[in-house]
Amino acid sequence: MTRSELLSRLEETAEPGYRDFSLKLLPGTGKILGVRLPQLHKIAVQIANDEPLTFLDAPCGEFFEERMVRGLVIAHMKLPPAEKLMLVRDFLPLIDNWSVCDSFCAALKDAGKEQEIFLPLIEKSLSSADCFTVRFSLVMLTDWYLNDQYIDSVLKYFFAFSHPEYYARMAAAWGISIAFVKYPDKTMEYLKQSRLDPFTHNTAIRKICESKRPSEEQKELVRGLKRKN
């Protein structure tokens, strides 16, 4: 699929009202057409089953949806894990907003099946200076590594987190809150000793308390760990 063909498909399904809604959620993202995620997945699957490498060899366009489709094509491609990993690595510099980041991570089901292969890239990306590369790592850990095998390592990564930008800090807080739901005792011990910056620490606590899963007793204990900003 050429860029002109892709733009034609996107424009066919674009909704002005959804574009206006997306612009509010994604400030500073740039040009947005207003295509919903299920439609983007549908287009990406078609490209992934056709000539995905030809599509990926072409430069990425300027619209938000073009970037999203590019990531989803990579996620949907059927490739050996090592080859998929190279495409993932090359896509990271193109991630410039939380929506592309989180949708890309959620679609990368290969990571759930090949955790050992994907983990080195995730670990390396945690130390990036780029906000969304760091967010990629944190969201991947949340989506695919919160299990018995990796929970101790994941909690160490979450609580060693340090990055000044909002979207990275929010990803860390969100990951900690999900970890608490799944492994409350382990996560509580880390919260008690947390050296996270006050914003990330307190946001994690707020998200835990907003969840319906923890008990009121657990929430009360967690609230007692809040810090002054």
Number of helices: 15
How many β strands by DSSP? Answer: 0
Report the sheet with the most strands, covering strand number, pairing sense and barrel closure. none
**Mean pLDDT, as a whole number?**
95
Q: Provide the β-strand percentage band.
A: under 5%
Structural class: mainly alpha
Distance from first to last alpha carbon: 51 Å
What is the CATH top level name of the domain at 121-229?
Answer: Mainly Alpha
Shape: globular
What is the gyration radius calculated from CA atoms?
Answer: 19 Å
Secondary-structure element sequence? HHHHHHHHHHHHHHH
The CATH architecture of the domain at 121-229: Alpha Horseshoe
Structure description:
The protein has 229 residues and is mainly alpha-helical. The chain has a domain at 121-229: Alpha Horseshoe (Serine Threonine Protein Phosphatase 5, Tetratricopeptide repeat). The protein is 69% helix and 0% strand. Helix 9 (115-125) runs antiparallel to helix 10 (131-144). The radius of gyration is 19 Å and the shape is globular.
